[in-house]
Known about the structure:
It is globular, with a radius of gyration of 18 Å. By secondary structure, the chain is α+β, with helices and mostly antiparallel strands. Helix 2 packs antiparallel against helix 3 (65-73) and helix 2 crosses helix 4. A six-stranded mixed beta sheet has the order 3-4-2-1-5-6. A five-stranded mixed beta sheet has the order 7-8-9-10-11. The chain has a two-stranded antiparallel ribbon with strand order 12-13. Strand 7 and strand 8 form a beta hairpin. The mean pLDDT is 89. It contains five helices and 13 strands.
Amino acid sequence: MRARAYLSDDKVIVPDGRESDELARRGYGSKSSEGLILEPWEALYLVEKGRIEVQEGPGGPIVDFQELLRFFKARDEWIWAKFLIYRDLRERGYVVKKGFGPGLTFRLYDRGDYGKKPAKFLVYGILEGSPVKVSDLEEAMREAQASDKELILAVVERRGEVIYYSLGGWIKPSPAGRETS
């Protein structure tokens, strides 16, 4: 199945139909009155895999992967890192949705859980060598704990490989000087 999609403003839309329903069932995009709205990293992934063709507007010329990447990079300098993390997680069999909160790039559903259970993980994505404030990680950890999810740190190495670290929680000194979690 190769679905037709089109660029509209900053969105990629797969018009309503059998293809958009199948993509939605597999955890891609979000339904709207316009059709299935894909996140930039989803659109890039589906173009790379040959699952969709993106046009410049309905009926316009086809946009290839590199053109689509340039289009999104002009709007989001981190799109390449987000795409690499997204692609890696999808190819490991996970359903990946847009995250929430500061720095939380993705919500990650355990295999087989999408549509049945809430996301189990929050993914905080960073580039190797880019500074990260401890306060930003603390805020992400608080958000993960408040939503009963595990925080995963996804580090994109310079070669494009993604390394994952599980962040289980913070240890704070207790008033008596003993450590607690």
